Amino acid sequence: MSADRLRLDDHIAALEAPQGLKSVLTVIAATCAQISDVVAGGALVGALGASGQINVQDEEQKKLDVITDDMLTQALLACPAIAGVASEEKDQVEPASNPAGEYLALFDPLDGSSNIDINAPVGTIVSVLKSATPTPVEADFLQTGRHQVAAVYAVYGPQTMLVLTTGDGVKGFTLSNDGQWLLTHDDITISPDTKEFAINVSNQRHWAEPVQRYLDGVLQGAEGPRGKNFNMRWVAAMVADVHRILMRGGVFLYPWDKREPNKPGKLRLMYEGNPMALLVEQAGGKATTDGVQPILDVQPTQLHQRIPVALGSANEIDAFASA
Ligand code: AFP
Hints:
The protein is α+β, with helices and mostly antiparallel strands.
């Protein structure tokens, strides 16, 4: 069965891409396969629970946040094509000291960490940029998402899957029992219409008026202005919510809310917004901050910048924008 399937290694080898980028992608894929093993080991390998540390986002880190951050950081810094890395879990960027380094990797090593201890899906998200220098500083990382040369996520769910774009469509690979990434989802596309939305409704009272109006319309179902019934899903791991949208359509919304007016949103532009936006756009969907402004055009000003997110099926994002 697996003999007929394209291996990720062969897909990477056949890409019309510089050798350096191919080696970065190979390292990301190999490390995600290793992370999958640790995630699957759970309590048996001492991977559950809190680490007792607080990260730069002021969030309590889980043990797996720390373990996976370390795994990705070490593996990528050892790749000669890498000039530097940045992680959601680290205060500052880390230059690689590789004289031939020409790529930057920015990652959320374990997205959805509140799911770890309840055995629900989590994932890894990676954005790859070109570096202007082999000795990058933070300013070199602050490029718009349009500059990404690759975006990848791995989702550790009932199956472990890796979903990848290098700017020429989106492909999904499933990890086999013998540790091979095999092509199972060629040319992933997001249907323009949907009847499914994902939003954390517990925040409703804090949203801006247009978001309230959109949700009101959706919840009225066939009797309301939208004229159709909707279903809701919320995995609490963006990686798993976006994966569902890539598989069967839908919209994922994490809007600005008025609790902390100076914070533009919950999700991070560089580690979550940009890589997911590139994958969604490459699959034919829309990825915006507010229904209109493309996430990929947001000029970052800070490494750990947050943004509001509205992405998924194109026509439904338009409906969100005009609510
Ligand atoms: P953690 O990785 O810190 O758990 O955060 C996950 C996340 O940033 C994103 O993946 C989810 O969509 C979102 O938070 C879930 O947030 P809620 O707490 O509102 O469910």
